[in-house]
Amino acid sequence: MTEKEQTNALFAPSHWQVRVTIPKDWNHVGLLPAPAPGERAWHYPYEGGRSFTTWAGGAEVNLALRNPIAPWRIEILDGLLWESGDPLKSWSTKLQKAWRSLRAIAEHHGDEQQKQACRLASRAVRSILLYGIGTFAQRPRITTGFLELGTGGAVPDLPDGARLTGITDTHVTWERNQGFARDQYAHPEWAAGVWSAARAALLSVSTSSKDPATGKPMKAGALHLPAGSILAFRTDAIYTSAPVDWEYGGEPGDYLLKGRMPWEQTTPCTDAEFYDLQGLGRQALEAEGM
Length: 290
Hints:
Elements: H1 3-11, E1 14-21, E2 34-35, E3 42-43, E4 51-57, H2 58-65, E5 73-81, H3 89-108, H4 112-135, E6 142-148, E7 162-167, E8 171-177, H5 188-203, E9 205-210, E10 217-220, E11 230-234, E12 237-240, H6 271-288
Helix pairs in contact: 1-2, 2-5, 3-4
């Protein structure tokens, strides 16, 4: 493939098996997922000079090759490339238009009840868009049940293929993977493409704001923040200890400030501590606006 064909392939709906080598002087977050043992299925290696083999979406691979800090070395071993097209464009464009319209009414309508109704409706449309994409990714059916403990607290025999998920003084709970059901509407490749683009946008993305000096779109994302300032990623959100001044233009993909604390806080080391910190940040930002 020529360089142009390679670039077009990465921008098309695609998923690639790659051998990755991180630059030796890399000192920022990891860019591509790698299989991880334990509870989490994936982690993001960031150690300079490290090599690993993984699968990643075209958007993520393209960003690793062309990120604003230093290009990663990528060797493509295998890949899945779908025909070009926009199967979700008409559907998503109409929902985005409805979302923008409802948000605008919610901000400017003179009647408080109408403002609240449109605000709630805009969130409903947003949920349809986000969760609709998720339903394209076919998942296994999980059955859950419970059984009473036997005499003396003995654990009863579980159904074939079930695993124990909890136990109380009187009952045990279990779950069983029922496998995949045939679903003519399942398109995991669509969901994978959207999520790959979302993960790439966490790292670097053009916003709707223009640079006054060049007239080009401003950039946002983790790679535009100081190394070591990133606390966590959650789906489409960045948690950072650095001050952020990215302007929110109201367009899909723009970052919106949801929480901020003007005081020092201990770095969270567990999920529970992280979500406590998230709640404090949102409360503090809300208090600023009062």
